[in-house]
Amino acid sequence: MINLYRGCPEISRLFKLISHDEKGSAVVEVAIMMPLLLMLIFGSIMFIQAYRTQVVLDTAAREAAREYAVTHDSSEAREKAEIELMIGGINPDETNIITRVNDFERQVIIEMNYRFQVPFAGKYNPVLRGTASFHREPEPEYW
Questions:
Q1: What does the pLDDT average to over 105-126?
Q2: Is residue 35 within 8 Å of 105, Cβ to Cβ?
Q3: Lowest mean pLDDT among 20-24, 70-74, 112-116, 131-135
Q4: Which residues contact 107 (CB under 8 A, 6 or more apart)?
Q5: How far is it, in rounded angstroms, from Cα 19 to Cα 105?
Q6: Taking 60 as the threshold, does the pLDDT of residue 92 lie above it?
Q7: Would the pTM count as exceeding 0.70?
Q8: Phi-psi region of 142 (alpha: psi -120 to 50; beta: other; left: phi over 0)
Q9: Which residue, of 12, 47, 134, 138, has the fewest CB within 10 Å?
Q10: How far apart are CA 6 and CA 112, in angstroms?
């Protein structure tokens, strides 16, 4: 190795220490990468759970809209939505179930505030919404 600091032995000694001593470098690398790795892992887990909750909301809304189109009773549609939410592991009290009627269309909307926290990234509170609508066939006209 070429000694660029011949005139200053302190700098030469420091340069040799920095360039050849790798003790503790793994600890520094892990300390730098650990927060990023944890954020990615927990962020992925939270995203998967939020997606699963969205699928449950969509399924409950679809089943409730089907029930609403068949029975024309919004209370039965709400009951069906609550049952589907409980099957999916969601507390129906934490959701807002909305039923709408537009001529021959029966629509059900289920909204839920989904709270989660990702380490080193912060807290989030998105609104997840499941929506479904079914068309009711008009009554046939008989002559």
A1: 88
A2: no
A3: 20-24
A4: 65, 99, 100, 101, 131, 132, 133
A5: 74
A6: yes
A7: yes
A8: beta
A9: 138
A10: 70
Q: How far apart are CA 51 and CA 123, in angstroms?
A: 17
C-alpha span between 91 and 99 (Å, rounded)? 18
CA distance 50 to 116: 9
Spatial separation of the C-alpha atoms in residues 44 and 21, rounded to whole Å: 37
**Dihedral sign computed on CA atoms, order 89, 91, 94, 100:** positive
Whole-angstrom distance, CA of residue 40 vs CA of residue 128: 22
Pairing of strands 127-135, 122-124: unpaired
Tokens 């809304």 sit on residue: 61
Q: Could you give phi then psi for residue 128, rounded to 5 degrees?
A: -95, 140
CB atoms under 10 Å from CB of 109, counted, come to 19
> 3-state DSSP call for residue 134?
strand
